[in-house]
Target: Adenylate kinase
Amino acid sequence: MRLILLGPPGAGKGTQSHFIKERYNIPQISTGDMLRQAVQDDTEIGRKAKFIMETGGLVPDDVIIELVQERIHKTDCEHGFLLDGFPRTLAQAKALSLTNISFDHVIEIDLDDEIIVKRLSGRWVHPASGRSYHVENNPPRKPFKDDFTGEPLVQRDDDQEVTIRKRLSVYRTQTQPVASYYLSMAAADKTNTLKFFKIDGSQPPLVIFEKIAQELE
Ligand code: AP5
Model:
């Protein structure tokens, strides 16, 4: 199974990706997580990406495309994978099409901007696993500690309101056209291999996941 998960920042892509990867046993490829790791490791890509990410912009297409191309050709992707946060521009989507890798589903999670701002400003994450919590909607069992490891949770540098609003504006101008690109591609696919569906991200996480699972199965 090969999937693409689209949606604005904070729509719940990471949350749903974790459910999907557990149930379907496929790797989650999150370009955001890969870039944060590169920043932490102080690699050349990390140094290029750090300021762009902190200020809510998009890392250049050539950097991201190379990163993803390399990752999806690793052996753990042979039986499928889930792309979370890629493609984010039409140039990235077109580069992915050129690989001739076929996808089964493109899922777009939709959510209102004001709900997103509330969600992201209350988000705390466990960096090692990518598990994400929310102070009100999804609190950890012990305050500011990961439920599984007990390690401290942290807030992301780009989860400040001014940066969240910049990320939303970048999403609407640069990434929304990617959803339209796949919608048209699915509509034109006479073999019905590629399916596109959009889901309301304001429902509880497990309700969203069960709806996604119904579509996948
Ligand atoms: P990335 O890490 O991909 O961030 P994002 O797309 O902005 O998405 P988020 O991780 O913020 O949100 P999410 O949708 O995963 O929501 P989550 O599940 O965590 O990218 C970061 C940066 O890297 C970009 O800004 C860019 O600079 C760069 N980058 C990455 N990919 C790139 C690319 N392809 N090209 C160029 N640059 C790239 O949930 C959010 C919160 O809500 C959590 O607290 C969660 O617990 C809570 N929550 C989740 N679901 C629900 C629900 N249903 N109800 C209530 N609360 C919920």
